[in-house]
Amino acid sequence: MPKILAYRGKVVQCLIQAQFAKGGPDIMETLVHYIVIENNLNKDSNVRVWLLMGNIVQIAIRMGYHRDPQHFKSLSPYQGEMRRRMWAMVYSLDTGFATQMGLPSSIKHSLSDTRPPRNLQNHDFDASSTELPPARSIDELTSSTVIIAKFHIARINFYMHYQRARILINWKFLGTSKDPADSDQSWSIVIEAALEILQLQHLMAEESEVSDASRPTVSHVFSSSAAETNCHLNS
């Protein structure tokens, strides 16, 4: 533990000397590194970690991570893909900490258009690459598979919260409206949202049952559910 605390102190010193609030090279990587350390040092959920995550999100947005790298012509394919990986990490951490605390996430989902990173090994491309290679099969475990999985799970989790909100908003109108048509519409929305949640929960439960520890079973989540979720979120 003393070594971990000393290491955390050095990370903080580096961030302060680099004036992390202004952004810059390696700032996001160091901030994510720091918040993971802080979270692991806490035995239970801590509101300070959630607050810190909010600051990290704001710095990431200020540095443009919420926009897909295709909008920035000055970025190389390598830089763009690494930014996608970093945003996926920030996105999943923000959603995870918010869910853990029962508080809102800091990322405004409608403001981000950053695509998920490709399923590639680190040695598949480098700083000299003029274009990214095709993504490997999602059934193949790579350096970015876990990041991609967490990113899609975070988006699905957000969509389920959205459906819960639809249920709560319409619940109070069930059977109380003087106009039967309004009550019927509320019932329809509640049932539709509940079925959406059950479908996603069932899918997540199925994909969590790993029959072969050497092979990830996430292809269905990526190919169907995530695509459907993106469609709903963008509609």
What does this molecule look like?
- The protein is built from seven helices and no strands.
- The chain is mainly alpha-helical and 235 residues long.
- The chain folds into two domains: 114 residues, no CATH class; 72 residues.
- Helix 3 runs antiparallel to helix 4 and helix 4 crosses helix 5.
- It starts with a helix and ends with a helix.
* Uncertain stretches of 5 or more adjacent residues: 216-235
Strand content: under 5%
Tally of separate domains: 2
Distance between the termini: 48 Å
Fraction in helix: 55-70%
- Helix/sheet category: mainly alpha
How many strands, which pairing sense, and closed or not: the largest β-sheet?
none
Instruction: Round the Cα radius of gyration to an integer and report it.
Output: 20 Å
Strand elements, count: 0
Q: What is the number of helical segments per DSSP (H or I, 4+ residues)?
A: 7
Order of helices and strands: HHHHHHH
Write down the overall geometry: globular
